[in-house]
Design brief:
Length: about 375
C-alpha cells in the first residue's frame, strides 16, 4: 500500500514528525494497514500504518523499508529496553507509542507482567504480533489489555479491557527503589500506577525532613505520600477515589510508614484546611482535548495554587503537576504566578520537572511532552 502526500506536506515528516493527517493526503494506492509514505513527486519518506477511520491517516513506524512482523517488534522492544536499563524499578513504560517508533501502542511492564494499550486501528490489527513478541521475548506471567478509553472511538474501535495471556494476578506488587507498591491493573487509573512520577517521587522526598507536614492532594495509591512518610514527615493524602484510598493505606502498611488518607474532594479539602503545611503536592488527573476542557484545567491549576499559597508556611513548597500536552510550561507558570499575586505572596520557581526516560519526549513531536511539574517556594 502506498500513501502520497499533497505538495509541500512532506517537510514535517522529513523533520521526524510522526503523524500525517487525512487532509494532507493526496491519494492512496492499494489496500491494507501497513503502508509506504511518499511525497508528491514519488520519493519514499517513511513506513508506517494507515487508518481508514482516524483523522490521523498515517503513523510512522520506520524511516526505512522493512517488514512489520514479529522480528520488527522484537527489535523495537529491545531498543526501548536498552534506553530504560538504568531505571531504579522493575516497573516502567516499555513502549511509549510514537516516542519509541511504535505509534498507537503503549506497553507498561510491572515486574513479570505487562499491560498494553492499543490506541489505533492498525495497531489493533497488529496486536497478535505484539502479543506473540511479548510472550517469546519476555516470558510474561500475564499480559493484560487496558484499552478502556474513549479515544478508541475515533479509530472505529470499541473500548476493551481483559486478559490476553497467562494467569492474572491482581493486585500485584512492584518494586521502586527501596519501596514496594500494590498495583491494580484492572481498575486502577492509567494502567494501574503512575509510572511517570517515579523521578518526581524521589524529588519531593528530598524536599522534606522529619516532622514536616505534607499534604498530598489527589494522592491516588499513595506514591508521593509513602516517599515523604519515609523521611519522617507527617503526611495527609486526599483522594476522591475509594479504591485509590484503600490502596494508599495498604501501600503505607506495606512500606512500614505512617500516613493518614482521607476519602474526599481535594479542592474542598485544601480550601477548608486550617493547618499550615511545609509541602503541598497537587497532581490532579487531567485530559484536555477541547478548548473548554483546557480552560477548566487552567482554572484548576490556579485554584489549587491559590489556596495552597494561603496554607503554606514561609519557606514552604508547592509541587504542582499537569499531565496533558495541551497545557504548556509557560501556561502553568502563568497560572501559578497569578495565584501567588492574588494572595499577595512572593514565590520563586525552583524547578520545572518533566517526564522520565521511559516516557521519552521527542522535540520534533510536541504532543509527546505532556507531564510538567512545577516546584514553587513561598519566600514572603
Amino acid at each position: 500500500m502506498k500513501v502520497f502526500l499533497k505538495k509541500g506536506k512532506e517537510k514535517k515528516v522529513k523533520h521526524f514528525y510522526p503523524w500525517v493527517f487525512r487532509d494532507e493526503v493526496e491519494k492512496i494506492e492499494g489496500e491494507g494497514i501497513v503502508a509506504e509514505l511518499y511525497d508528491s513527486e514519488g520519493n519514499f519518506l517513511a513506513l508506517g500504518t494507515y487508518s481508514p477511520y482516524s483523522r490521523i491517516a498515517f503513523r510512522v513506524l520506520s524511516y526505512e523499508r522493512e517488514e512489520v512482523n514479529e522480528e520488527f517488534f522484537k527489535r523495537r522492544l529491545r531498543e526501548s529496553e536498552l534506553l530504560r536499563r538504568d531505571i531504579p524499578s522493575n516497573a516502567y513504560r516499555l513502549a511509549f507509542s510514537e516516542s519509541d517508533l511504535l505509534s498507537g501502542l503503549i506497553i507498561d511492564r510491572y515486574g513479570d507482567a505487562f499491560v498494553i494499550q492499543v490506541r489505533s486501528y492498525p495497531m489493533e490489527i497488529l496486536k497478535e504480533k505484539v502479543l506473540k513478541t511479548l510472550v517469546e521475548e519476555f516470558n510474561p506471567a500475564f499480559v493484560y489489555e487496558r484499552s478502556d478509553f474513549k479515544g478508541r472511538r475515533e479509530e472505529g474501535l470499541k473500548e476493551f479491557k481483559g486478559l490476553l495471556y497467562g494467569k492474572l494476578e491482581n493486585p500485584l506488587i512492584i518494586e521502586e527503589r527501596e519501596f514496594k507498591f500494590l498495583v491494580d491493573v484492572v481498575e486502577g487509573l492509567k494502567t494501574g500506577f503512575y509510572l511517570d512520577q517515579r523521578d518526581n517521587r524521589e524529588y519531593v522526598r528530598n524536599l522534606v525532613k522529619e516532622g514536616d507536614r505534607v499534604l498530598d492532594l489527589f494522592c491516588y495509591s499513595g506514591g508521593f505520600s509513602v516517599y515523604c512518610a519515609n523521611r519522617g514527615a507527617k503526611v495527609v493524602g486526599v483522594d476522591i477515589n475509594k479504591r485509590a484510598v484503600e490502596l494508599a493505606r495498604e501501600n503505607a502498611k506495606l512500606n512500614s510508614v505512617k500516613a493518614d488518607f482521607v476519602l474526599g474532594n481535594a479542592f474542598d479539602f485544601i480550601q477548608e484546611s486550617k493547618e499550615e503545611w511545609d509541602l503541598i503536592i497537587a497532581d490532579p488527573p487531567a485530559i484536555a482535548k477541547t478548548k473548554k476542557e483546557k480552560e477548566s484545567i487552567l482554572w484548576a491549576i490556579w485554584k489549587l495554587a491559590y489556596y495552597s499559597f494561603q496554607k503554606l508556611k514561609k519557606g514552604g513548597s508547592l509541587f504542582i503537576c499537569s499531565c496533558t500536552y495541551q497545557i504548556s510550561s509557560e501556561e502553568m507558570i502563568r497560572q501559578v504566578r497569578l495565584a501567588s499575586t492574588d494572595v499577595k505572596r512572593r514565590i520563586i520557581i525552583k524547578s520545572l520537572n518533566l517526564q522520565p526516560i521511559d516516557h521519552p519526549y521527542l522535540p520534533t513531536f510536541p504532543e509527546s511532552l505532556y507531564l510538567k511539574c512545577l516546584h514553587a517556594i513561598v519566600i514572603d
